[in-house]
Specification:
The chain has 137 residues and is of the alpha+beta class. Helices cover 39% and strands 12% of the residues. The protein has one domain (7-120). The chain contains six helices and four strands, in the order E-H-E-H-H-E-E-H-H-H.
């Protein structure tokens, strides 16, 4: 499967916060420009993301824009997703005025405590029939 021509959101498939975030993104993505895969999926291997690195960096959502080699992490991933979702998305660039160490500090705290704060699922999210084409293995 060719993944280079897709905007890919990588999420933790067993995290409730990530599950709710994906639900929100699916509702907001009226143009259906986003594809999704879980950290536990096969597509992560194709993106050359290693589980050990992800665990060390406390990642929960990552973003790879189509036809780009850049992989966005932490708060940058969220900002870039929002920029791509909305026609006036460039407005979200204003959050980059907040120093990354502050944005990512908040992100890391939430990511590190996401299971305690929001819970954990035993299995990854199962897409509906309508959503299946937007989820990668």
């Amino acid at each position: 499967m060719e993944i280079n021509n897709k905007n890919i959101v990588v999420f933790d498939g067993v995290c409730n916060l990530c599950h709710y975030s994906v639900e929100l993104l699916l509702r907001l993505d009226s143009k259906k420009i986003l594809s999704f895969t879980s950290l536990q999926g096969e597509t992560v291997k194709q993106l050359d993301i290693h589980q050990e690195r992800l665990a060390l960096e406390e990642q929960s959502i990552l973003y790879k824009r189509k036809n780009s080699e850049v992989l966005y992490y932490r708060s940058d991933a969220i900002i870039e997703i929002l920029k791509d979702l909305f026609s006036l998305g460039f407005i979200f660039s204003i959050f980059k005025l907040i120093p990354r160490f502050i944005r990512d500090g908040i992100y890391r705290y939430i990511a590190k405590n996401r299971y305690k704060l929001f819970g954990k699922k035993e299995t990854c999210r199962i897409p509906t029939e309508e959503e299946k084409s937007r989820f990668l293995a």
